[in-house]
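Review box. Two proteins, two foldings.
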Amino acid sequence: MKKLVTAALLVSLVLLVTSVFAEMKVGVVQPLGISIYMQGTHMLVNGNHLVCLLESSTIDLTQYEGFRCQVSGPMSPTVEGGQQIMDVQEIKVLH
């Protein structure tokens, strides 16, 4: 029982930290293709400016390619290239 309560508390803490540190960005979702970053599947761009790289284990980002979207999720630095990558947890097409 104690392990179950500890696991439930840990899950609650992870969800709280994720929601507190989630960021929101806006731009056009584009496929990343081959890149120096070796992370992410897509990128979010605003004009010619790279906003951030994108990845998601829960959302199929390919269905949003070419659309201007609002994305949110936790950000972290990329391993290479000095960029930021977002683990997209929510996405909304903007009209």
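Next protein.
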Amino acid sequence: LANPQVIEEVVRMRNGTLTLEKVLEEVGLTKKWKTEGIAEGKAEGIAEGEARGEAAGREEKALEIARNLIQKGWSIEEIAETINLGIDKIKPLYHPQREKTLKTRRKTGSEHLK
């Protein structure tokens, strides 16, 4: 919109009665930059929120799969390796019933158990 050198010259010609900020405001640049900054900030916030939501959704799906594999008698290590989920995330999913299931499956020779 405005050449910075022209703006500086206008400020000088006014003997300091006009500031650079005032000139930018008068030509509409301040409002334009503020509006663009707000829009950019909103877009970045939306993108970040979407990324966080997607990551949370992927983790929830992995936990659901882990629960299903636990019910099938898989070990923590097997689950962690198979679905690429940390052992620290899988351990809380185990219940006392798990040991009973493991013993029963070992007797039947389940191939997924160690």
